[in-house]
Amino acid sequence: MRATHNFRTDRRLARKMAAAVVFLGFLGGACASEPPPVPPAKDGGFDPDLGQQPSEAVYAERGPFAVGVTTVEVEPGRDMEIWYPASPASAVGLAPEVYHIRDFLSPELSALLAPNVNPPFVTGAVRALPVSTAGPFPLVLFSHGTMSYRSQSSTLTSHLASWGFVVMSPDYFERGLQSLLGTAPAPAKSNAAITDLAMTAIEAANASGPLAGAIDTSRLFPIGHSAGGFQSTELAGTRTDVQSWIVLSAGVNLTPTIFNPSPKVPAALGNASKNVMWLTGEIDGVAQLPSVENGYRYSAGERKIVVISGAGHNNAVTDICEIGRPEGGLIGLAQSGGLFLPDSVINLAQNGCIVPPNKLSPDVWPITHHFVTAELRYRSGLDPVPVGLGSGVVSAFAPGAVTYRHEE
Fold first, then answer.
1. I need a surface site. Which of 20, 66, 244, 286 has the fewest CB within 10 A?
2. In 144-214, beta strands by DSSP E
3. Stretch (H or E) spanning 265
4. Sequence-ordered alpha helix ranges (H) in 209-360
């Protein structure tokens, strides 16, 4: 039988191949585009090497205050945790606050877990202590990451409160753990709208009640982990009461792609009057180091970058890696309870938690605590000049534990 030739099929194939060539050419052209120009760096800021105790990790350990914690409602169904300084005498003999991860799950997800899967985490705060009379204290907004919850970094937030800050952390259901295998409360709100709700709630708390008069609400210092780090940068670019912010385990991607051929530098980074600290883990598999370095490079104001050896996405900043560690951590507990989780959720939850190559959280928390506390105390005016932020402070930790750069 003689073979037949289908010219119509050939023409269709030729058209598809031509379209593919055009598409790939466009994609290659987009990727080959130049990134946005680096903004000119600020010059003339105060050099931390000339500050006080520049080579001493003064803030690695807990501060002079005991820490109280309270929960307030920012709108029906959405709560906010507040950590605050308290008198040490007021905490004597009282048990610290304990939270359970199950309290932050959606009802749908909770129903899938075995009843005994509910690991506790002992925090560094005591519920409902009377606030210290030494205020008013500077206000920090902590923003949690994706698939996480408002108390995810209670070790850090209570540490900050022990050094003289009020720290508020609202639920971000729209990206939070409550949305995993469940439905977040509706209607969804933007980061800016949730921040406004949080500010309204904190101003109400400062006007009357147990925290009355204890909070300086005239300025806001956002710090955020992962997706919360992006949010902190966004808030720094839109709010006039924000002059300094800290990004934890998040970076900036300014590489042109077909989907974003002309990436723009976030507004806050191009503002030389605003100051930022970038802190990340050297082996973070979520916010990879080049993107964090990129954020530092594009920051026009006074800038610092802290890179912690043996740290991934979670262990240096959150409580997450130490919750249920003897039982295999959060993922191990969930899987032992018969729950199937997508790889993306497993990778996000476990990044930084597997030892080795990562270090245990208690071994790297002091590095995060010192740098974040020192930066916030300087920017808020609690320290008139930088304390413990000179280049030589890396020697206060184990050799090779941290690298640190600053530019003014």
1. 20
2. 166-170
3. none
4. 227-238, 289-297, 329-336, 343-350
